[in-house]
Amino acid sequence: MKKSIVPYLVKRFLRFDNEQPFIFLSALLAFLGISLGVMVLLIAMALMNGFDKEFKKKLTIMNYPLTVMPKFYGSVNENLLIDLENKFPQLHFSPYVQSAVMARSGTKLEGGYIFGVDFKSEAKVNSILSEAIQNSDFNKFDILIGKSLKEEFNLFIDDRLMYIFTQVEPGGLSITPKIKRFKVKGVFDSGLSAYDKAYSYTTLSSLQTMLHIPTNQYNGIHIFSKNPEVDIVELKNFLPNSVVIKGWWEDNLNFFAALELEKASLFIVLMLIILIAAINIISSLLMNVMNRRSEIALLLSLGATSSEVKKVFLYLGIVIGISGILVGIILGMSGLWVLSTFDIVHLPKDVYPTSTLPLDLSFKDFILIVVGAFAIVVASSYYPAKKASEIDILTVLRNE
């Protein structure tokens, strides 16, 4: 009998009581609150991870996984490029020359950077550029511009675009900035308007000529790596002291730290939904205890132990909580499938590569949500269960 009394009483106390409907209603509200809380948490964390991953993908493409640059002043030479290609054949390298410029079309001006690159090498480290230069041949002083700059200046293929270089040269009694017109030969679209407006690409020889840089000298080398955090260690050990190497994440530490803080804050705030639902569990169990004082006292007098009484109400709260968590998981996963499959929330295609929401629920976040919700449920069930086990048999039976 003792073995079956706990599950029997749990089933009995979960039933709807016509005399005390508010107890059942309170338990139902707790169940719904936990279900909604878990569902919202799953979808919110998947959204945060999805957007985080999307931003990282964009920044990786336009900032390059790894970049070799001179430590102070000077340049990177062709010998270093050859040594790197021989030492690390699994990586892709693209030398570049860079200059700050002002693009001018009519009365409009736009600041940015122009990169002189070998387009064949650059296509191996930059998938956006690789897609943009398909079936195109770039000659000297041809230029590849971003979609945002093209639309702002209303440019077309083979139009001329003036670039004003920040480097100046003497001219008589004064100094004048270098100015050169480039022919627009192609347009790239990274999905981030800031990069599309600021970055332009021309041939390596074009920019070396404009900046009077020898053909075997560069401002740096872009490197494509599938595991940049690992490869950067090996590259640092190989590179001479005259150059440095940096990863794309080093320029965006504050941005991603802010995203992590936002994600943690959102997790805590949404976990409060489950905490509020847990309060309903406490109130429901306390009402149950108060209304069943005589039954509990009778059970204790017939031989049931305080531990068994405590287990009854502890399991009662856990059953309500776990049921809510399971239903919340089902609703959350269903919601993620619907949002990722159907175009319910439309995203602008000029910002994101897809019109559906980017969703990515990590296993770590899933476990944190489930474990956190379960811990709240257990904690909220413990106090009412403890109060039930402390009922004084003589006092209750004398008064009732």
UniProtKB/TrEMBL annotation:
<dbReference type="Pfam" id="PF02687">
    <property type="entry name" value="FtsX"/>
</dbReference>
<dbReference type="GO" id="GO:0098797">
    <property type="term" value="C:plasma membrane protein complex"/>
</dbReference>
<dbReference type="InterPro" id="IPR051447">
    <property type="entry name" value="Lipoprotein-release_system"/>
</dbReference>
<feature type="transmembrane region" description="Helical">
    <location>
        <begin position="21"/>
        <end position="48"/>
    </location>
</feature>
<dbReference type="Pfam" id="PF12704">
    <property type="entry name" value="MacB_PCD"/>
</dbReference>
<feature type="domain" description="ABC3 transporter permease C-terminal">
    <location>
        <begin position="268"/>
        <end position="391"/>
    </location>
</feature>
<dbReference type="InterPro" id="IPR025857">
    <property type="entry name" value="MacB_PCD"/>
</dbReference>
<protein>
    <submittedName>
        <fullName>ABC transporter permease</fullName>
    </submittedName>
</protein>
<feature type="domain" description="MacB-like periplasmic core">
    <location>
        <begin position="28"/>
        <end position="215"/>
    </location>
</feature>
<dbReference type="GO" id="GO:0044874">
    <property type="term" value="P:lipoprotein localization to outer membrane"/>
</dbReference>
<feature type="transmembrane region" description="Helical">
    <location>
        <begin position="266"/>
        <end position="291"/>
    </location>
</feature>
<comment type="similarity">
    <text>Belongs to the ABC-4 integral membrane protein family. LolC/E subfamily.</text>
</comment>
<keyword id="KW-1133">Transmembrane helix</keyword>
<feature type="transmembrane region" description="Helical">
    <location>
        <begin position="366"/>
        <end position="385"/>
    </location>
</feature>
<keyword id="KW-1003">Cell membrane</keyword>
<feature type="transmembrane region" description="Helical">
    <location>
        <begin position="312"/>
        <end position="339"/>
    </location>
</feature>
<keyword id="KW-0472">Membrane</keyword>
<dbReference type="InterPro" id="IPR003838">
    <property type="entry name" value="ABC3_permease_C"/>
</dbReference>
<keyword id="KW-0812">Transmembrane</keyword>
